[in-house]
Inverse folding.
């Protein structure tokens, strides 16, 4: 039997104005388990708290009920009070007789009666409370960043600068991501390489950062503070620690017809390559699909020319296992495939390109060395049509496009238009748009400059069809403002393809038990208040893997994610919320219902031995809750038919007792 | 369709026992009366030849027995499953209730089983024996001699509204596999939904008040496979042995139906075993009908690993207020 | 004087993060609703077991209302989606058994919707009062 103390607060006249606190304290005295009942003007004051502490000691109280304001206000306060008097803080229950009683009722009798019921309910619950102890788990002070684009780079640098070790896993041979492929950046028109490559060098030189390039995450186990991750280092057939990055092999390799993915296939590279001059790490990689030596054992030129003896045709995938306290997903985005948008003739004409391809065409390190030339014939285009929202905001065509706005296209199209007009004033530029969305600092000014100062023709309306005719492209579209159909003869058409999360994100989310939305963007723990955390504890989100973002926004989010990681790694131990689910293994039948509804992946199964009839042993599958991961929502408790799964602090019996007390 | 007889099954069992495929057979043996059969485990063919029975009264769904049986000893258990049983079988596998490798399933075609309660309703209680080898049953009664009744007339309710002749799980089949068939199994639910709330209440009050809380429905149900039922769990707050008053029964049956909602394959065992002839399947079918209507057609046990509707959601699900008003007449 | 006036018993389950905070806000703004409403705080609406609701009716509650975060805003991301399915099926079943469907309700109330909380409770109490005492689900033995 509990020994319960009841403390009724006046809250000055806030409660005492409409609730007869003396009467409440008196009435609750006779409730089961109550051995002491008191009232005081301000329970939360130092004197009030002292009164509680003294009573706990004097009456050997095992539980207390404070009838006061909302538990959202002072539950933590009174738990600390109880703890200071040696009582387990989870033996405290609050009856909310202010927000949910005195403040909403005018009649003293009514208020008093209700306050008594609320007090009785809290007493009924505390009678069934049990002391709870938050679990503690150590924190591995190292973070893993998955993805080495600008998001991953920024997050890694910020974490490393705070003094924690960071590993970056990048599936490509170099970090840099999409930003490395860009020419200039809006709204300032800085050259992307000029602002990105120094950061890449910072990463390479940072003593706290390791880069696993050409690597992928293979397996993730564990939970917040204690992740075990297996990383696959794909064979690049070049010894990383030996290669000097001189690039001689990439010039001598006889296999010249390998599509250069860095330039989106618009030119060729060799079978052994360094993606671009500023690659980090600057190490050659052999493309096994094209290398003659790897395919049929004939060649070996690169090994012959390599003075450092870095080539190793026998290299195999290697696995690295490492422990981490936090994991950041920074897997980024890709433009969607244009295969399903045949109306724009992307597959029929080389002169219909995507915006990212346009970036490469404009870039000095691109396939045309920065000269704007048509891919088909290398002639300078005099009439360019940009088409916005190709596959974005595509509610009616969900099977080929995306319902959401890709967010960055309006701005980069304005940039492309402006750069074209700046470099080639003889070129006429037309942009078809649904809406121009420019909500960002200096964004609208930027767009207006394109439209007003640079003479870019902005036409509100969609393009219906692009058809190649001779060496021209006939663009048919509608001008919604002039209300007429247009037919434009263009030399080049640039499609602002929608962006989508990288394909690696979905399997990664499964490994991380991090939730995703239907578009495969990672879901944040709270859309407004916890935008850089996944609902799964210890998993953080950086950049476009959480939603379409431009560079400034990505960098802000990357920094915010880093701050959250630092906050986590700065702790030596994690103290959990003790009000977590617990599985009664004797009752559990291992049906997996609870696991399926758990938003955090906190439930796992183990085969356990149980004593069967006649001295036999039975092996049964039972659910186990990882207290460090469980957030205590209780969804599993309802999914569990037998009641084997229960929630500490909000147990079935406790809530039933509350129901009974109210209905008495 | 090949008529499945006792002899066919014994021959199959003999083959599988002797070639070592299985080490035991889960089947039925005769109880007090020929129509009153009891589950039994046979480890040798002699005892099987002696005691094994199979006829139109052998309707029991064996999938649930596999939970315990597969945990005993080495070797596989042979079980003969009717199409409807295989759905329960898959559902149990989905819920990790036994090891598939420890079972050998022989799917048997089925043209419906007979409900002894319907025969008793026709001829009274003194049924001595029933010859159920042809489509006309010969019923030997204590007081009126031998009577005849067409099998179609005494077909069990679940067979009358059979939902599938297709086996969704088996290692081998005897006879040809059938198809999923469209049935009228929701007709009675429809009828109830069309009544006024008062009429519905009166209907269920009448039905559920007969409940004696014998727990037969729970014990036979292949979805009720908890180690310990919530109504026996002292920590649940609802533990009770039996109740004298109506609401306890209502609560028990509502909760039981809710706990199996989305997992119930509509095998109809609950109604088959109810000694009080309460149409419990109408509770389950209400949930099935609602699930189909609210969240799209779903058949529990159709495939192993399917996610049951109550452990799933979409962002566009209907609101509870819309759910009740759908049935508003 | 008030002896003959029928006052229903209402149990309101509120999730800690949205609806309970909404109820607090109603209080802070002094938005009145009947004293018949008694709130039970649960971490999430998905913690509410159908057994709790039936138990409340069994013990004499006349109405049970469940409040949670708006779909999409659940503190635990998906809890209220499960609540929505569970309660849709449960309420439909209660209706099927002939229990007045107005006695049960689910309402999404955010932490900012103090006014909605008060209005919801006012409306619910009015509806249940009009229905009168819950005779169909109350276990007579529990009546004192």
């Amino acid at each position: 039997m509990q020994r319960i103390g009841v403390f009724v607060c006046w809250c000055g006249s806030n409660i005492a104005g409409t609730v007869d606190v003396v009467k409440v304290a008196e009435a609750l005295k006779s409730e089961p388990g109550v051995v002491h009942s008191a009232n005081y003007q301000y329970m939360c004051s130092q004197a009030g708290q002292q009164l509680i502490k003294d009573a706990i000691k004097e009456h050997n109280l095992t539980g207390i009920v404070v009838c006061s304001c909302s538990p959202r206000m002072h539950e933590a306060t009174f738990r600390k009070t109880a703890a200071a008097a040696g009582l387990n803080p989870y033996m405290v229950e609050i009856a909310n007789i202010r927000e949910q009683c005195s403040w909403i009722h005018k009649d003293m009798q009514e208020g008093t009666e209700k306050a008594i019921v609320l007090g009785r309910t809290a007493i009924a619950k505390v009678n069934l409370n049990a002391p709870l102890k938050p679990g503690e788990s150590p924190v591995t002070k190292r973070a893993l960043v998955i993805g080495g684009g600008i998001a991953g780079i920024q997050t890694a640098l910020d974490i490393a600068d705070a003094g924690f070790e960071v590993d970056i896993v990048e599936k490509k041979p170099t970090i840099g991501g999409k930003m490395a492929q860009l020419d200039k950046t809006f709204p300032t028109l800085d050259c992307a390489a000029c602002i990105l490559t120094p950061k890449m060098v910072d990463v390479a030189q940072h003593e706290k950062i390791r880069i696993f390039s050409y690597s992928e995450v293979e397996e993730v186990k564990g939970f917040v503070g204690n992740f075990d991750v297996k990383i696959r280092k794909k064979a690049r057939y070049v010894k990383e620690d030996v290669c000097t990055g001189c690039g001689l092999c990439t010039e001598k390799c006889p296999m010249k017809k390998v599509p250069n993915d860095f330039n989106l296939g618009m030119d060729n590279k060799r079978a052994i390559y360094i993606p671009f001059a500023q690659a980090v790490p600057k190490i050659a990689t052999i493309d096994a699909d094209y290398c003659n030596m790897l395919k049929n054992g004939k060649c070996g030129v690169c090994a012959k020319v390599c003075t450092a003896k870095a080539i190793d045709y026998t290299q195999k995938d290697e696995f690295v296992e490492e422990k981490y306290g936090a994991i950041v997903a920074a897997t980024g985005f890709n433009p969607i495939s244009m295969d399903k948008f045949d109306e724009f003739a992307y597959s029929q004409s080389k002169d219909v390109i995507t915006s990212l391809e346009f970036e490469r065409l404009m870039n000095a390190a691109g396939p045309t060395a920065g000269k704007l030339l048509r891919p088909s014939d290398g002639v300078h285009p005099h009439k360019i049509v940009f088409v916005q929202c190709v596959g974005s905001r595509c509610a009616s065509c969900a099977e080929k496009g995306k319902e959401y706005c890709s967010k960055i296209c309006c701005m980069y199209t304005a940039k492309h238009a402006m750069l074209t007009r700046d470099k080639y004033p003889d070129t006429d530029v037309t942009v078809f748009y649904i809406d121009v969305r420019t909500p960002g600092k200096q964004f609208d000014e930027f767009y207006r400059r394109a439209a007003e100062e640079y003479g870019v023709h902005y036409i509100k309306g969609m393009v219906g069809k692009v058809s190649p005719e001779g060496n021209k492209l006939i663009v048919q579209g509608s001008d919604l403002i002039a209300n007429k159909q247009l037919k434009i003869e263009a030399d080049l058409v640039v499609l602002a393809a929608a962006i989508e999360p990288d394909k690696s994100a979905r399997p990664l989310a499964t490994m991380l038990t991090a939730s995703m939305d239907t578009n495969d963007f990672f879901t944040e723990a709270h859309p407004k208040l916890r935008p850089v955390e996944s609902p799964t504890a210890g998993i953080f989100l950086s950049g476009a893997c959480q939603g379409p973002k431009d560079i400034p926004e990505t960098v802000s989010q990357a920094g915010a994610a880093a701050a959250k990681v630092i906050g986590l790694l700065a702790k030596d131990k994690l103290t959990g919320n003790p009000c977590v689910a617990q599985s009664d293994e004797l009752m559990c039948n291992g049906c997996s219902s609870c696991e399926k509804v758990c938003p955090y992946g906190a439930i796992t199964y183990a085969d356990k031995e149980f004593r069967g009839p006649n001295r036999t042993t039975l092996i049964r599958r039972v659910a186990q809750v990882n207290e460090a991961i469980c957030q205590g929502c209780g969804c599993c408790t309802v999914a569990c038919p037998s009641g084997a799964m229960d929630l500490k602090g909000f147990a079935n019996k406790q809530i039933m007792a509350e129901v009974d007390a109210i209905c008495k | 369709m090949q008529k499945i007889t006792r002899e066919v099954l014994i021959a199959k069992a003999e083959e599988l026992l002797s070639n070592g495929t299985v080490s035991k057979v889960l089947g039925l043996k005769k109880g007090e009366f020929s129509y009153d059969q009891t589950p039994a485990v046979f480890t040798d063919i002699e005892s099987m030849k002696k005691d094994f029975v199979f006829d139109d009264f052998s309707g029991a769904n064996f999938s649930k027995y596999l939970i315990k049986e597969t945990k005993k000893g080495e070797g596989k258990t042979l079980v003969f499953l009717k199409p409807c049983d295989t759905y329960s079988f898959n559902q149990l596998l989905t819920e990790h209730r036994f090891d598939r490798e420890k079972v050998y399933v022989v799917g048997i075609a089925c043209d419906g089983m007979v409900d002894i309660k319907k025969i008793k309703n026709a001829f009274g209680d003194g049924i001595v024996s029933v010859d159920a080898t042809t489509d006309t049953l010969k019923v030997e009664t204590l007081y009126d001699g031998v009577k005849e009744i067409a099998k179609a007339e005494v077909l069990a309710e679940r067979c009358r509204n059979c939902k599938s002749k297709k086996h969704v799980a088996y290692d081998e089949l005897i006879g040809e596999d059938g198809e999923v068939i469209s049935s009228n199994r929701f007709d009675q639910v429809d009828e109830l939904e069309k009544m006024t709330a008062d009429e519905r209440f009166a209907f269920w009050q009448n039905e559920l008040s007969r409940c004696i809380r014998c727990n037969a429905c729970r014990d036979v149900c292949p979805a009720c496979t908890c180690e310990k039922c919530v109504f026996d769990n002292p920590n649940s707050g609802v533990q009770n042995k039996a109740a004298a008053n109506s609401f306890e029964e209502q609560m028990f049956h509502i909760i039981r139906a809710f706990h199996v909602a989305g997992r119930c394959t509509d095998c109809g065992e609950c109604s088959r075993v109810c000694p009080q002839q309460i149409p419990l399947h109408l509770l389950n079918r209400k949930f099935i009908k609602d699930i189909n209507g609210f969240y799209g057609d779903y058949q529990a046990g159709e495939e192993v690993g399917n996610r049951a509707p109550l452990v799933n959601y979409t962002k566009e699900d209907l609101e509870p207020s819309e759910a009740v008003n759908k049935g508003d007449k | 004087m008030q002896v003959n006036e029928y006052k229903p018993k209402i149990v309101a389950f509120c999730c800690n993060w949205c609806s309970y905070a909404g109820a607090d806000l109603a209080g802070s703004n002094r938005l009145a609703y009947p004293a018949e409403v008694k709130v039970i705080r649960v971490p999430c609406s998905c913690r509410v077991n159908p057994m709790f609701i039936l138990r409340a009716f069994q013990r004499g509650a006349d109405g049970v209302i469940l409040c949670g975060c708006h779909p999409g805003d659940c503190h635990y991301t998906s809890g209220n989606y499960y609540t929505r399915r569970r309660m849709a099926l449960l309420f439909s079943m209660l209706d099927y058994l002939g229990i007045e469907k107005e006695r049960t309700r689910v309402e999404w109330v955010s932490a900012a919707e103090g006014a909605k909380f008060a209005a919801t409770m006012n409306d619910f109490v009015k509806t249940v009062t009009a229905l009168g005492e819950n005779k169909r689900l109350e276990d007579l033995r529990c009546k004192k």
Summary: The two ends of chain C are 23 Å apart (CA to CA).
